[in-house]
Design brief:
Blueprint (H helix, E strand, L loop, with lengths): L4 H9 L5 H18 L3 H26 L8 H17 L4 E4 L7 E7 L21 H13 L2 E9 L8 E9 L7
Antiparallel strand pairs: 1-2, 2-4, 3-4
Helix pairs in contact: 2-3, 3-5
């Protein structure tokens, strides 16, 4: 898959939000979710759910501004997420690692060397189970659901948990329709 040069031009033309403002605002949202949740698991679910709802909306913006007609294959979808959408919405690109397909499940890992949501953040010991960037996982899942992919996302590594980089694994399978059976 190639990210078209026009996509890079589009990304450069989009009005950007100051990354520190994004980081601090996201931190405030996470902090409030933690306060409102009874457990870290519940906080993770809320972050994922918020991301899912965001993903269902931002995919239209990405597809229209990136001027993508159609992804040729699943690898094209993965590359657009890692290199196109991440750059457009977070200002970073993720290295995409395609894993062997099993049982019609397409799996890829997104390797983030930097994650702007993690700036200024340290997880206290009692919150080590928190997937701080779970909103990203939810956004990917929500965006994929809009284009009829069933996806699960999970963090394999997290820089906030003393890993060298953040790795987000995405598993996706094409949604079946009644007419397909």
């Amino acid at each position: 898959m190639q990210i078209r040069k026009s996509n890079k031009v589009v990304v450069n033309r989009i009005e950007k939000v100051n990354s520190e403002l994004l980081t601090l605002t996201y931190g405030a949202i996470v902090s409030q979710i933690i306060k409102d949740s009874d457990t870290v698991i519940e906080a993770n679910e809320q972050l994922e759910k918020m991301g899912y709802n965001i993903g269902q909306r931002i995919i239209d913006e990405y597809l229209s501004k990136a001027e993508i007609k159609q992804c040729r294959d699943k690898i094209d979808v993965a590359e657009n997420i890692g290199k196109g959408a991440m750059q457009m919405f977070l200002g970073v690109t993720a290295e995409v690692e395609i894993l062997p397909e099993t049982d019609k499940i397409f799996t890829f890992n997104l390797h983030f060397i930097e994650n702007p949501l993690n700036d200024f953040v340290e997880l206290p010991e009692h919150l080590q189970g928190l997937n701080y960037s779970n909103m990203i996982a939810g956004a990917i899942r929500g965006a994929l659901s809009t284009i009829h992919w069933i996806a699960t996302c999970r963090f394999l590594k997290d820089q906030l948990k003393n890993d060298d980089k953040t790795i987000l694994q995405v598993e996706m399978i094409r949604e079946k329709f009644k007419d397909d059976e």
